[in-house]
Amino acid sequence: MKCLVTGGAGFVGSHVAQALLDGGHEVVVLDDLSTGHRAAVPQGARFVHVDLADAAATDAAVGAERWDAVLHFAALSLVGVSMREPFLYLRRNTMTALNLIEACTKHKVTKLVFSSTAALFGGDRPDPIASGDPIDPGSPYGESKYLIERTLVWADRIFGLQSACLRYFNAAGADPKGRLGEDHRPETHLIPLTIDAALGRRPGLKLFGSDYPTRDGTCVRDYIHVMDLADAHIRAIGELDSRSVTYNLGNGLGFTNMEVIQSVERVSGRRVPWEWAERRPGDPAVLVADSAGVRAETGWMPRYQQLDDIVETALRWREAHPHGYGEPA
């Protein structure tokens, strides 16, 4: 296949681009490098510098070649920032996606895989969340992703652009071959923050809340290895020959914040400095995915089901790349 990957200089997008290349496919990465890294674009992928907010440039990039599939990862993605700047997130994420989707329909692209989010579901869900569960975004970020999903429904009905909306939970880990890793600026994800604390590269962690109704009082989250996510994206393309699909993507196993600290300590052999802090408003006690749909329909199965295995790949990359893809942030 020839695939266009928007946001392919970011964490998940770069790993999906790498998996496509490993599978023998041709990849073009389109990114504005506002949050991604040029060095994260995998070797063998062609790079095109385009801001999806520029409708004309987006149209030209999509129309320049014939694509077997477009995979859309480019977006603002910080939930907390979206609560402070809701209109920025609602405008930027939806308008950039609209520009891309419109260009795809104009140039007869028939398959699009969309990086959606578990933030569509909001609230506290003690049971695993299925793709058919009620939508109730808890942030403008989640709302923006839902608006894009609804746009894709109409793009399918009117223009025949079939799409896979993949709602994933906590992406983590790194390419096991050490080619790619996680480098957000600022970093907000628990596993890399915990690793950096263990390596002495940042102050000790704060665990927000010790009295949640969980096995050790800390929040439970579903961590899915980024290469398992990549595998699911590629499998989803094959489902788009005749229909659009929506899947939740998660490991299905919830791990507490305390268990993440314990895992990093086991894998690294180092102590993680941490202290208790008050709960953060809006943090659900438990968020775990029910991925039965994607497993049954595509045969997908996470290979990295144990937290230590996920942490090990992330730790190896962080040790080898103390400044991520470049100089200190």
UniProtKB/TrEMBL annotation:
EC number from the UniProt entry = 5.1.3.2
GO molecular function list: UDP-glucose 4-epimerase activity
User: Part of which pathway?
Assistant: Carbohydrate metabolism; galactose metabolism
The answer to whether UniProt assigns keyword Heme to this entry is no
* Cofactors demanded by this protein: NAD(+)
Catalytic activity annotation:
UDP-alpha-D-glucose = UDP-alpha-D-galactose
> Which EC class is the enzyme in?
isomerase
Q: Does the keyword tRNA-binding apply?
A: no
Alphabetized UniProt keyword annotations: Carbohydrate metabolism, Isomerase, NAD
Using the record's annotation, list all stretches that form the NAD-dependent epimerase/dehydratase domain: 4-250
**Example GO BP:** galactose catabolic process via UDP-galactose, Leloir pathway
Pfam families annotated for this entry?
A: Epimerase
- Subunit comment for this entry? Homodimer.
Q: Which family does it belong to?
A: Belongs to the NAD(P)-dependent epimerase/dehydratase family.
Report what the protein is called. UDP-glucose 4-epimerase
Please tell me the species this chain comes from. Answer: Tanticharoenia sakaeratensis NBRC 103193
